[in-house]
Amino acid sequence: MTANNPKNQKLVITVVQKDDGENVLNALHRDGYASLLISSSGGFLRRGNATILTLCSSEAVDKVIKIIADHASERTEIKEPNLGVQVSEWYVPQSVKIQRGGASIWVLDAELAGYVRAGAFK
To answer: In what order do the strands lie in the sheet with 47-57?
Structure first.
């Protein structure tokens, strides 16, 4: 393999709400961080998410996290109860307030980074 073996390179994996994905990605690009957005889903509310992969130096991790924090908004949402069961006098289902948004972030060591062009890993 002839790809780069980046010393002190980190892979920042970020999961934000789908609504915030493009804003976070554009902010990272504006500051010169090449990033990849992948659509994903899951979580308690089963809503769409955006997973963003960013490769940066270990010195830049704090700046990348700040950019993400500045562009990943939080929201309060009301989750209505599932009324698929019969409601009785002793149980009255209530709505629940749920905080959504922000970001989940993992920072990993990047052992190898490269791309495939013309059948070769560079």
So the answer is: 35-42, 47-57, 9-17, 104-109
> Does the residue 61 lie in any domain?
yes
Q: Which contiguous run of DSSP H or E holds residue 30?
A: helix 18-30
Q: State residue 1's pLDDT score.
A: 44
Residue 89 within any structural domain of the chain? no
Which residues of the chain fall below pLDDT 70? 1-6, 43-46, 82-93
Domain count along the chain: 1
Phi, psi of 101 (to 5 degrees): 100, -160
Contact 95, 80 (CB under 8 A): yes
Residue 49 belongs to some domain of the structure: yes
Domain that holds residue 38: 9-81+94-109
C-alpha–C-alpha distance, residues 84 and 86, integer Å: 7
Angle at CA of residue 39, ends 38 and 41, nearest 5°: 130
Is 115 within a domain? no
